[in-house]
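The following record pairs a protein chain with its ligand, D-xylitol-5-phosphate.
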Amino acid sequence: MIKISPSMLSCDFSRIGEEAEEIASSGADMLHLDVMDGHFVPNITFGAPVIKSIRNTSNIVFDVHLMISDPLKYAEDFVKAGADIITFHIESDSNTKETIEKIKSLSCKVGLSVKPKTPIEEVFPYLEDVDMVLVMTVEPGFGGQSFMHDQMEKISRLKMKLAEMNKTIDIQVDGGINEETVSIASKAGANVFVAGSAVFGGDYEERISTLRSNATTV
Ligand code: DX5
Ligand code: ZN
């Protein structure tokens, strides 16, 4: 199933609650919330209190992307703030297995992400335990960067591995997704598309619907 997850990183932060509400009523499936700690990535965004403050603006799925060094330590704060799915990086300092178990024990879905230079094979031992794999299509840290085409091969290898295992999970792409790259990523096998600048640069409903139809017509 195709899902569009607009990234709030590109919203007007002075009106983040209204922006979240507007995205939720513009046909998005999820709301992508980029948490950066200035340590795992060279940028700082927002944390659990901000997510909690916008939780009551809609019932949309909160897709929390943790770009932080110690996701195990903070996972519970994000579940309490209202996360429906928490994605963390395999390159973080936390133990991968323990972090997956912690998030699941809090009745939250879990995603595992790889940065562009990390081989996709690193997530293979965890595929039975996660709900989603996020293949980054830019170096994490900033919105508005260019899509890395060379990451598509990783999606194909992941698809092959999942087919071998007779398993279907969500495959998310994040970074540089626009009306053209969405169909490239979709053809490679991704089904969840994060888009920041491509959604917030225009009419939200129109942008989301274009992304969805370009992802569908592969
Ligand atoms: C990058 C973030 C992305 C980013 C996407 O580190 O994880 O979610 O906001 O922004 P665009 O769609 O502008 O590349
Ligand atoms: Zn993200």
